[in-house]
Amino acid sequence: MLDTPDPVARTLRAAPPDQLAEAADSAIRSLLGASRTDVFIADYRISGLWPVLDPELPDAGFLDCQGVAQRCFSSQRPVRDAADDGRCRLYLPLTVWGERLGVLMIELPDGPGPGVEERAADIAGDLAVALRAADRETDRYRRVRRRERLTMAAEMQWELLPGRSVTHETFHLAGQLEPAYTVGGDHFDWSLDGDTLTVTVLNGDGTGLSASLLTAVAVNAMRNARRSEGGLVEQAELASDTLYYQHRGRRHVATLLLELDVRTGRIRAVDAGSPHVLRLRGGTVEPIGLDQQLPLGMFAEARYDLQEFTLAPGDRLFVVSDGVWAATPAGQEPYGDRAMARAMRSTRLQPAAEAVGTVMRELHAYHADTDLRDDAVVVCLDWHGVRGRDAG
Q1: Same domain, 280 and 136
Q2: Is residue 2 included in any domain, yes or no?
Q3: Whole-model pTM?
């Protein structure tokens, strides 16, 4: 006998893309007897969680729940918050394939009975998938996500991103762009296909809209080669030729291309004058020594060579752009000399999605909380290994 269709999933599929929060609220009240719900979405800088149902007028209840919601978002675990009057609030992460979107709050008139929390978690999963899909059809959730107006360059960069994090049984991967609302040419991209994870990090030449346009061409050229089953060398060479014949060597993009075999931890790399890659193993941070080749677009028909290295289970890789490595506010030594390694070591117990935020916050603190003068990208890759198999 066929299972009965999930009423919440069915309701979400039938709802207009801009009305998912309202549709979920109605279904949750009916199914779980909830007295209230809220959907909170993380902003571009992941500095706070913001309500969808009433973004202009957050009430005292919203303000009171912020700490609990943030704990749920950071831990990626359900959190219960019981009130003195017997009411109970459930906070559940809204996450799709490791992409952290926000938090669903469900307020119940009394403590949840058997199976309610598990059912609520399923609802949160359905809602997260629907929200991710709806971003292509409505601007409502993007408006909540932005706390100030993006520049045109930043608008293009955020639209080009694959996401901000992804999880797999063998790895966790996350990235962050700063300054979030004015970023220009720095960027990251990734794709998982079977046992192969491809990651690229770009340090675009120039600033503003021209840098964003240059990076967009490079990213889409590499995607074109990758989606045509081209390897890293073909991806780099197609992007380099495309940029060169458009700009005749006047513009170029320093790029690191990585290809991880998720089963073995073996990484192939093309270092095209690239951002910096560092490995955190235990408590030690050390750079991965790669031979730098020409940035993409510098010369006609440039050719690239592969290099290889292997991760051990538990290794963490950081890839950072020059805006992170070479940051030198107020005449201090570059952030990459010592302060960055301290920040990276402090992330050992954090998941990748929290680790990129920690490194970025420490970078802002190094700048004494003034605006960053250059684009900054941090990408963090954790390889856990395959159970029962050693990397070899």
Answers
A1: no
A2: no
A3: 0.91
* Co-location of 275 and 193 in the same domain: yes
Render 232-291 in DSSP notation, one character per residue.
HHHHHHHHHHHHHHHHTTSS-EEEEEEEEETTT-EEEEEEESPPEEEEEETTEEEE----
In 3D, which of 102, 93, 125, 99 has the Cα closest to residue 42?
A: 102
- State which amino acid sits at residue 163: G
Q: Which of 38, 125, 33, 21 is nearest to 87 (CA)?
A: 33
In three-state secondary structure terms, 211 is: helix
294: closest CA among 341, 362, 237, 342? 237
Per-residue pLDDT tens over the stretch 302-341: 999 999 999 999 999 999 988 888 777 777 888 888 889 9
Tokens for 307, please give them.
């290099």
Give per-residue pLDDT as tens, 200-256. Answer: 999 888 888 999 999 999 999 999 999 999 999 999 999 999 999 999 999 999 999
Residue range(s) defining the domain that contains residue 109: 7-144
Decide which of 144, 172, 198 is a domain's last residue.
Answer: 144
| In a shared domain, residues 300 and 183 | yes
- Cβ burial, residue 392 (10 Å; 0-12/13-18/19+): exposed
Q: State the distance between the two ends of the chain, measured CA to CA, in whole angstroms.
A: 48
